[in-house]
Amino acid sequence: MNSKELPDVARHGIVSLPGALDWVGMQGVEMPLRLAEISQGHPVHAHINAEVNLPDPDIKGIHMSRLYLLLDSFADIESLRPASLHDLLREMVNSHHDCGTDSARVSISFNLLHRRPALLSLHLAGWRSYPVRLDIRLIAGVLQLQLGVSVLYSSTCPCSAALSRQLISAGFMATLGQRDTLSATEVADWLNINSTLATPHSQRSIAEVSLLLPSDATEFGILPLINLLEDSLQTPVQTAVKRVDEQAFAKRNGANLMYVEDAARRLQHAVSSLSDNAEIRVRHLESLHPHDAYAQSRSGAPLFAGDWS
Fold it and tell me: What stretch or stretches form a coiled coil here (predicted)?
């Protein structure tokens, strides 16, 4: 049967309750996409939301197959960069001129795999997975670009560290405090055995950062942003480690004691040089409590997409 003979309810159906709609489309479309700024050559498994507006109150529905075919063609021949996504949004708008459409948006989420070296061991490395979200809007011809990334790091509680030091100090005084003289070797021997009388609690922690990019950006800058966040926090989780690397990681944790507020402020300062519009969400998955510690910061106007749930 010729497709023209099949009923087209979206085009010819009668709208029982007329009304304009802000966004209509598809969510959770799965496709392989290539990142232009990452040269590893492997596509990422992406989940895509693609939507257009429906301002004509008397149009029953959009043509979702048109959007899907545009996404499929994009995945086949294009790579992810601001310019190519701008073109995609224009094509989405053009594909629905018969619906009065003048705006489109796409959200793309995926995990970026990147190889990270060990802290000290030469030629030792492992893979890290970073959740990434790209949100792109074309609103009446105006382009908006937003990048979001998530990083895992370790956080050691400053209060717990202070309490642990106090117990160790008290233990030292109870054992050796009555002696008038002590050799460095005796002190070192005591510490080697007793410096873990108490240990501060630390936990895996999550930082989610979203920022608005310039509309004329040529790249998203995904990996540079991830590097900036990890350098700011100083304690990103590690993959392949030997004992020297684990010791170096323990040293980093000791030198970077952080409440959730400290971590959020570090990130706030780090991203201030990149964008006037940024949102930071930090969670410390407490090992002392059954609940999480949380902090949030936002600069500039509210971002148009920041929900990582």
Answer: none
